[in-house]
Design brief:
Helix content is 38%, strand content 21%. With 257 residues, it is an alpha/beta fold. The protein has a single domain (14-256), classed as Rossmann fold. It has an eight-stranded mixed sheet with strand order 3-2-1-4-5-8-6-7.
């Protein structure tokens, strides 16, 4: 049994496919940077492990969802998995890893400054960390699972408190992806027009998660039913790593120690 919500996207649900492929693409673009002892902070159900392990000397992962960690331990017995919340990351000493990956995690972290500081502490000298997070400029509606979202500028401000050497890029898509985005945008706007009491803005996140999950799933299924071919045909090759532009779907930050 998976842990999937619309936030933890499934590779087995057709309506989730465009987002799954977008998230998977980050791992593809991470491959040139992966080397040595690798740590993934927030591994979820292990979307990128099959790729990462090809270039890693060792692979270690941490996630707060214990059921996910238990499943990954059985699937990848040669790797190390820990169930733990963070930051701080109390499991490891300073200068422990050559590569640290944390994709679609920082937006869930209350103390993002400490999170980046911990990544810096854990990296070996000469090491590389890779972070992705949604670009708030392209977000279509409030996500109650996120504590905050970032612009390129606001993420740079946070990472610069610990890292002097970093490069901001982004994940974007081709015409097929942009077509899906526009269809999704129009559909979301229709739902939002029904929110006459402005519940999206007013409800506490803990309560808003319930209607958000229901409506998000309905919306994804609606788009799939309208054009299954478009939804199902998108692959990771329809996305690519881009320069730092305002219409990137996700921010992709490369941090060097």
């Amino acid at each position: 049994m998976g842990i999937y919500t619309t936030e933890i996207t499934s590779d087995k649900i057709i309506s989730d496919n465009p987002l799954h492929q977008r998230l998977y693409r980050a791992y593809v673009d991470a491959m040139p940077f992966v080397r040595g002892d690798v740590l993934e902070l927030g591994c979820g159900e292990g979307r990128g492990i099959d790729l990462i392990e090809k270039k890693a000397k060792s692979f270690t992962a941490v996630d707060k969802i214990e059921s996910s960690v238990n499943k990954l331990e059985k699937k990848y017995p040669s790797h190390k998995f820990y169930a733990s919340s963070f930051p701080p990351v109390t499991l490891f000493s300073d200068n422990s890893f050559d590569t640290i990956i944390s994709f679609q995690v920082i937006e869930h972290i209350k103390d993002d400054v400490l999170f980046i500081k911990e990544i810096y502490r854990l990296l070996k000298r000469g090491g590389t960390a890779l972070i992705t997070t949604p670009n708030i400029l392209m977000t279509l509606t409030r996500n109650p699972w996120h504590i905050r979202e970032y612009t390129s500028e606001s993420l740079k401000e946070i990472v610069s408190k610990s890292f002097l050497d970093f490069n901001m890029k982004g994940i974007t898509g081709n015409d097929k992806v942009r077509n899906y985005y526009e269809v999704n945008k129009k559909s979301v706007q229709k739902f939002k027009r029904l929110d006459v009491f402005n519940l999206e803005k007013c409800l506490p996140s803990s309560i808003y998660k319930i209607p958000y999950e229901i409506l998000n799933r309905i919306n994804r299924n609606k788009i799939k039913n309208q054009d299954t071919k478009l939804v199902a045909s998108i692959t990771e090759k329809d996305y690519h790593l881009n320069n730092d532009l305002k219409d990137n779907l996700d921010l992709f930050c490369i941090l060097k120690k």
